[in-house]
Amino acid sequence: MKNTILFLVMFTFLVACKPKSTEKASSEHQPVSFDQSTVQKIDIHSHYRYSREYLPGLFKKWNMRSVLVDVSTQDSTGIVRSWDTYLTHAESYPNTFFLCSSLIGTTIDSPDFEQRTIERLHKEIEEGAKMVKVWKNFGMVTKDATGDFIQIDDERLQPIWDFLKSKGIPVMAHIGEPEQAWRPLDPNNPHYGYYKNNPQYHAYQFPEIPSYKTIITARDGWIERNPDLQILCAHLGSMSHDVDMVAARLDKFPNMYVELAARFGDLASQDSKKVGDFFKKYQNKILFGSDYGNGTPEDMLTKDELFKEQEELDANYDRLWRYLSSKDSLEIRGQKTVGLELPIDILHKIYFQNAVDFLKVE
């Protein structure tokens, strides 16, 4: 009897220790509980404009680095950016932050637009930019001299894409908005609060803004015409309401990747099994992003405000981690769901390895 028990114990141990023979088998294995800090992370999409005393410790806790993503906008004073403050922040914490530059189509009609833009991007790449972002101003905001909205597939932008290809610099593309932007406000939609507070981007109120289909079609054409340009479609490519739409593009365009920032609510509104299957199938083309950040210098906040900010940020990262790694019941942007319980090998890719490969960093 004792020999039988000993044999069963040894057999169980050997089976448990046997490595998975294929990636598919590993991906189908349901994870056991594990500490999030064992998974290295890169938040591919953040906006930490100003330093915080607590940030290094918080990022250490999460075993995480982050990409500071610049955004170019235009107001009455001209083009507004965050590049200089991001550069200062990244230089202060070089082991924590990467940099992403940006591009806006303002003055595209000027004879020197191409030269000026390439010279600036070259300078910022030399300063450390690993990526360049284009924003939803293409298609929805910025117009050329004729009054037409500039789409991302505009041929006048092609020399810039060619330059970035030559430098091996990928593009983060936030083109378009969620489909909800072209519909009446719906309190049950995860984007209700955003468009209520930012009505300038609620396209439903501005019939002159091109349709959702027009903008997405221009984006797709741009990707197809630049197969050698690595493109990270921010916010699940503005198709986050339907993972089938995302999947169709990932199948069609080998140079297209997606990141998740600020679209977890859309995922939570869909069937968890379907979303989980999407992650498993496209595990090599999905990157973690949060869109978290700050816009106020530290010395303008009280200790209590900073403490609350830290707590909320920590809780937000925890919520996203639980959605991806556990089968907990959760609520994300008003959407009740259950976690995807992705295996640890897929979490490693989404949180870290895919970003390392895409940005060509260590």
UniProtKB/TrEMBL annotation:
GO biological process: secondary metabolic process
GO cellular component terms attached to this protein's record: cytoplasm
Protein name: Amidohydrolase family protein
Origin superkingdom: Bacteria
Source species: Flagellimonas hymeniacidonis
GO molecular function terms noted in the UniProt entry: carboxy-lyase activity; hydrolase activity
UniProt signal peptide: none
Keywords: Hydrolase, Lyase
Protein's UniProt keywords contain Hydrolase: yes
Residues in Amidohydrolase-related domain copies: 111-359
